[in-house]
Each structure stands twice: as structure tokens, then as C-alpha cells.
Amino acid sequence: MHNHYSTDVEGGAPVRRRYAISGRLEVASYLEFVAERARWLDIRGWVSADGSAVTLVAAGPEALVGALEMACTLGPLEALVETIEAVDEAGPVGNGFEVRGGVSR
């Protein structure tokens, strides 16, 4: 599924953010949950896990990156997200969205 969103809407300024997500997560299903929503929102970036800590880098219109952050906060039914910390990401973000770290779609 590929959606076309205009960046010319209020709140549509492009942003790049890095998120540190922690909680009681079934990591493989959480990574796929995040990737599915990012792809649906047409967000560029990646998600990976180191143990139970999840890192997400997301780039796109500010409103859509914010929508992805909200989805990550809620998570799938089996997840209990305890913290999400966001910082602006200065590095380049490639095209598309990928799951890194051995769990792929």
C-alpha cells in the first residue's frame, strides 16, 4: 500500500526523528507492527531492537511522524510501552522503511 500525502498541509513540514522505545514488548511482533504502520503512513526510515530496547528512525511530514509516534505509544495488544524518548535525527534516512536486526518482512 502506498499513500500519497501532501507536505503542504499545516503541520506538514518534513522532520527526522530518532525514538528510543522501551517497555514489555514481544520484540519481533512490535517491530513488524511499527514497520506496517510506517509503511502505511509512507514514512521513511527503519526500526531495530537490541534486546528489549527498540530504536526507530522516522522521516516524513511532521504530522505523519507524529501519528507514527502515537501508534508506537499504543502498540499492538500484547505490548506495554513504558517510555518513548524522541530527539531530532541529523543523519540521512534512506528511501522506504525497513526492519533491521534479523526480523524482516
In words, what does this structure look like?
This protein has two helices and five strands. The chain has helices spanning 27-40, 62-74, and strands at 14-24, 44-50, 53-61, 80-88, 97-99. A five-stranded mixed beta sheet has the order 4-1-3-2-5, with helices on one face. It is globular and about 30 Å long. The protein is an alpha+beta fold. 26% of the residues lie in helices and 37% in strands. α1 (27-40) packs antiparallel against α2. β2 and β3 (53-61) form a beta hairpin.
> Compute the gyration radius: what is it?
13 Å
* Biggest sheet overview: 5 strands, mixed
Helix content: 25-40%
Number of strands: 5
DSSP strand content: 35-45%
Number of helices: 2
Low-confidence stretches: none
Class by alpha and beta content: alpha+beta
The overall pLDDT average reads 87
Placed side by side, the strands forming the largest sheet appear as 4-1-3-2-5
Spatial separation of the terminal alpha carbons: 14 Å
Shape: globular
What is the N-to-C succession of helices and strands?
EHEEHEE
Question: How would you describe this structure in keywords?
Answer:
single chain, 105 residues, alpha+beta, 5-stranded mixed sheet, 2 helices, 5 strands, 26% helix, 37% strand
